[in-house]
Each structure stands twice: as structure tokens, then as C-alpha cells.
């Protein structure tokens, strides 16, 4: 019987799935970080901020 950690059997297949989730999470975090840097710097950052601000204002006014 395989050893259990937090109720999950640590078989070879489950370890590979866990590693795959870790790698996917790392890649997702890096992508989100990259997009955050691109969308918040320079002229593009100003335009994105203005559009988001306008959309939030429009949603607020519509909700009133």
C-alpha cells in the first residue's frame, strides 16, 4: 500500500499529475505577470487604465 499524504495515495501516477499541476501553475503565473507588466507600462498602460476606468464608471452609473 502506498504512503498517504493529506489523504492522497502517493503513487507514481499521482506524483506525475501533481508535478504537471505545479508546472502548469508556474507557467500560468508567469503569463499573468507578463501580461500585467505589458498592460500597465507606457502608453499602452495609460490606454488600458483609461478604458478599464471608463468601463467601471459606466457599470457604476448603470447600477445606480
From TrEMBL:
**Which controlled-vocabulary keywords does the entry list?**
Membrane, Transmembrane, Transmembrane helix
Q: Where are the transmembrane segments?
A: 12-29, 35-60
The domain of life for this entry's organism is Bacteria
Which protein, by its recorded name, is this? Answer: CTP synthetase
Which species expresses this protein natively? Answer: Maritalea porphyrae
